Amino acid sequence: MLGEAEALETRNSKPETGIYMRAEIEVYFSPEVNLEKLVTGHISKAKKSIHVAMYSFTHPDFSLALYKRFKRGVDCKVILDKFTANGISEASELVDYGIPVKINTGWGKMHHKFCVIDSKYVLCGSANWSSASDNLNAEDFLFISNKQAAMVFEERFTELWENKTIPYKSL
Fold first, then answer.
1. What is the per-residue pLDDT across 71-86, written as a single tens digit (0 to 9) for each?
2. What HEC string does the chain produce?
């Protein structure tokens, strides 16, 4: 078995490291916590931007929450996995709302599940934005309040958006 350093070398990648001082982290588990209310509650407070990278996005309440912020001038962008976007997905609804949606082209699967709000907050964990994640599955979910941690996720989002995606409608 490879050690951590050897594993990273084989993937030609470097880990994001750092000490994120004064980070407030809230930890949740579903189905005990209603993720739909939790996520839409945080989305509803966004003032500048909401950037979502989500493997599977099938919950219409999340689309509606994004649309409400988008209507108020919040910069909303969504990246979805190419395998899940054309199935049961909110991709078409998001595009119909005017929200830019892109599909990954860089990997077999884009398995991220994160959302950056106002470059200050991160929602992330094992949960997709789906009814199953909210009501059926055992999932973990973090809300991180820290600008430095949010910037790491924002940089990843920007890298994907600019270099590893195509617009949804071009499929």
1. 999 999 999 998 888 7
2. CCCHHHHHHHCCCCCCCCCCCCCEEEEEEECCCCHHHHHHHHHCCCCCEEEEEECCECCHHHHHHHHHHHHCCCEEEEEECHHHHCCCCCHHHHHHCCCCEEEECCCCCCCCEEEEECCCEEEEECCCECHHHHHCCCEEEEEEECHHHHHHHHHHHHHHHHHCEEEHHHC
